[in-house]
Specification:
CATH superfamily of the largest domain: HUPs
Radius of gyration: 30 Å
Helix content: 40-55%
Oligomer: single chain
Shape: flat
CATH class of the largest domain: Alpha Beta
Distance between the termini: 33 Å
Structural class: alpha/beta
């Protein structure tokens, strides 16, 4: 509807310029939805943009444009000039009736577009290292990334979903050493800790196990799953691994089993990835060495205190960053640069990183680095999500990642289910802190839980269709559909809301903000649920055949749009509840 009105208005503006003998082009004007419905269906600032070309006050131009639109009739039924020169526009009911017919005709295609022109976009998300179960922060990233990918596909982009994980470096060594420590603990074979461990408890945790002191690495992983991994190795190998280092079978086993569990969790979230990439491959393929060589050739690498540094201050950043420590161990920035350069080598037109707030400080250095390596840094985007806080009874549920007392994605899925989990995780702007209300999430009352509010509205449209078919009433066909009996204000309001769906999808895709779909779906359900429950004023199946067909068509339109919104959010659209 916005596009149709934009074309209509463009023609009248062009005619206005021609009448004044002005050859300037029509400016790019806005056509917005007023916050207050009393100010029209749409509002435009075009008169203010024409002031320079026409050399007239904006309000005078607005009045001339309003007169033209009023005389033309048709699409625009009412025009008003507001303030310094805004033009408020009302469309005739016939426009909204035609809109419903187009919704029925498009069906599941309604809201989709080819605006992306099949541009290749890579969306990297989750990317949790295989050191433990997925946390709620990872869960939020998972839902955000998948919904963004859905939106981009719906707007005509060729999307690749990718998962990148660090399976090298210090974290993975700590994982292997943690499993080894628990394995030795279970065998009662732990060696006495070195004197420095006893003297400096900040370097190692010392525990008493069956009278034997066990050295557990600082920053080691303490969750129950570590003990379970160790028990599995003990059952398989007995005491044969006592002299094995943590870098060997302990780390490999932990990585494979934990990543297998992560993939099961992702499957439970209805998320499938096209590509999995890991850090170790970047080292083994020589990608990281080539990054160092190219930065050095460009004069952007220097040595200091035995470490190798990236001259990031040359790009306006506040400090230079270490790429390789004095110990020879690389920092996370080095493989990140290699990985992002690889993305563009694969031909992506745009890459989107969905990451937690802890990556905010690192991202500018990645952008500067890949720019220095000749990649189009303006085509790299960060969608940063804030942390998730669990609340129950208004009180925060305390969590500790290091001690593994946090609630995992799997545990929360068991409590609330996939649909509720997905809706709650994406219903707020990514940059906003998310309070996950467990009491509300577990509430199955459709009037309270927003997920069920939307799903119930969709299910009711199917219930109405079932009743119609049971009574021998045929569902309307788009080719012969007549929506003109829909004249009640609440019916026109719903038609206007249906018309907003394509714009909502487009805006959510462009801004990478899927929460707009949640708001939209809740608004539409908030109009439909009370409408269909009022069986007196809004009786859908009646003796009036024309009105029955029109209202059945409205139900079908609501179903199409709600199903489309839920599908983009990765949530089921049930036929019964």
């Amino acid at each position: 509807m916005r596009d149709l009105l934009h074309q209509h208005l463009h023609g009248h503006v062009r005619a206005l310029l021609d009448a004044e003998g002005v050859e300037d082009g029509v400016p790019e004007f806005a056509l917005d939805l007023p916050k207050n419905p009393e100010h029209g269906d749409f509002a435009t600032n075009v008169a203010m943009l024409l002031a320079k070309s026409l050399r007239q006050p904006p309000r005078k131009i607005a009045e001339a444009l309003a007169a033209r639109l009023s005389e033309a009739g048709g699409l625009v039924s009412r025009v008003e000039v507001a303030g310094p020169g805004f033009v408020n526009l009302w469309l005739g009911d016939g426009c909204w009736h035609d809109l419903l017919r187009s919704v029925l005709d498009a069906g599941a295609r309604y809201g989709k577009s080819d605006a992306g022109a099949q541009r290749r976009v890579q969306v990297e998300f989750v990317s949790a290292n295989p050191t433990g179960p997925l946390t709620l922060g990872h869960g939020r990233q998972a839902i955000l990334g998948d919904a963004i990918a859905n939106l981009l596909e719906a707007t005509g982009h060729a999307v690749t979903r990718e998962y990148y994980f660090n399976n090298g470096g210090r974290q993975m060594r700590m994982l292997g050493e943690s499993v080894r420590a628990r394995y030795l603990e279970q065998l009662g074979r732990a060696a006495p800790p070195p004197p420095e461990a006893l003297a400096d408890r900040e370097k190692n945790w010392v525990e008493e196990v069956e009278g034997l002191p066990v050295v557990f690495p600082k920053d080691g992983y303490q969750g129950d799953y570590i003990g379970e991994l160790a028990a599995g190795l003990r059952a398989q190998h007995g005491e044969a691994l006592v002299d094995e280092p943590g870098e060997g079978v302990f780390r490999e086993t932990a990585e494979n089993q934990i990543f297998g569990e992560i993939r099961k969790t992702l499957s439970a979230l209805a998320i499938e990835f096209d590509v999995f990439t890991n850090e170790r491959d970047l080292y083994e393929s020589g990608e990281t060495d080539r990054v160092l060589a190219d930065l050095e050739a460009a004069g952007l690498l220097f040595e200091k205190d035995g470490a190798r540094w990236f001259r990031s201050t040359d790009f306006g950043l506040e400090r230079d960053r270490v790429l390789v420590r004095s110990t020879g161990e690389p920092t996370y920035l080095l493989p990140d640069l290699a990985y992002h350069r690889q993305k563009f080598a694969r031909g992506f037109d745009c890459v989107i990183d969905v990451q937690g707030a802890d990556h905010k400080e690192q991202f500018p250095y990645v952008v500067a680095g890949i720019g220095a390596l000749g990649c189009p840094k303006e085509k790299v985007e960060l969608v940063m999500n804030q942390f998730v806080t669990l609340t129950r009874g208004g009180e925060q549920v305390k969590q500790s990642t290091r001690k593994a007392t946090y609630v995992t994605v799997d545990e929360l899925l068991e409590q609330v289910g996939c649909d509720v989990f997905r809706f709650f995780m994406v219903q707020r702007r990514a940059e906003s802190h998310l309070d996950f209300d467990l009491d509300l999430a577990e509430d199955t009352d459709w009037k309270k839980n927003p997920t069920y509010t939307v799903q119930y509205a969709h299910a009711r449209t199917h219930a109405i269709e079932r009743k119609a078919r049971e009574t021998g009433v045929a569902m309307p066909e788009a080719s012969s559909f007549d929506a003109s009996p829909l004249v009640l204000p609440e019916e026109i309001e719903m038609l206007k809301k249906l018309s907003e769906f394509p714009d909502c999808v487009s805006r959510a895709a462009e801004t990478r903000e899927p929460h707009h779909l949640c708001y939209f779906a809740r608004d539409l359900a908030g109009l439909w649920n009370p409408y269909q429950q009022d069986g007196v004023r809004h009786r859908i199946l009646s003796d009036d055949a024309a009105l029955t067909q029109a209202r059945l068509g409205l139900a079908m339109g609501v179903r199409i749009v709600l199903a489309g919104a839920l599908r983009l959010l990765g949530i089921q659209a049930p036929e019964r509840m």
